[in-house]
Amino acid sequence: MTGDALHRQQAAMDRARLSLLTASDTLNLAGIYYLQDKATGSDGSWHSLLDESLAALQASEQAFARFERLSATAPEAADALKGSYRLFYDGLKEQAQGLQRSDSIDAFFAVPIQAFQADFNEKYLAYQALNERRGDDVNVRQLAAL
Fold first, then answer.
1. What is the pLDDT of residues 24-68, one digit of tens each?
2. Domains of the chain: total
3. Which among 27, 31, 76, 78 would be 20 to 30 A from 69, CA to CA?
């Protein structure tokens, strides 16, 4: 793998991760506003936050699809990261759809999203460490070729 290919793969994952974390944060805010609306008799302050969260999920999915294409022959750390990403993404999607479809906060408590996020963070750090080693290997090979 070349240094450029490694960089493109890493950049795609970074975009997917950033959008996924943005979706998570915004969805949490939507849940808080939802509960506040229910407590005060208001309605609707959470809808725009939910829309933002869904848009961030879509952006994450697009970046992740690019990452998958770029890492088709990736080592185990990328495969583990892909599975963990999917669990975290699907969990957020389930929470968002639960809030959207049933006008209920129940999905927030039914989905173990903190565990999914912790696992994703762990796999992401392992992937980062592997990429550092792979980048070093690429640099050594390039220097040796001079």
1. 999 999 999 999 999 999 888 899 999 999 999 999 999 999 999
2. 1
3. 27
Cα–Cα distances (Å) from 34 to 57, 88, 117, in that order, read 19, 22, 22
Q: Indicate the residue type of 50.
A: L
**Do you know the residue count of the chain?**
146
CATH number of the domain enclosing 135? 1.20.120.30
Q: For residues 58 and 23, is the Cβ–Cβ distance under 8 A?
A: no
Cβ contacts of 65-70, under 8 Å, gap ≥ 24: 66/12, 66/15, 66/16, 67/9, 67/12, 67/13, 67/16, 70/5, 70/8, 70/9, 70/12
- The domain of 72 spans 3-144
Tell me the whole-structure pTM to 2 decimals: 0.88
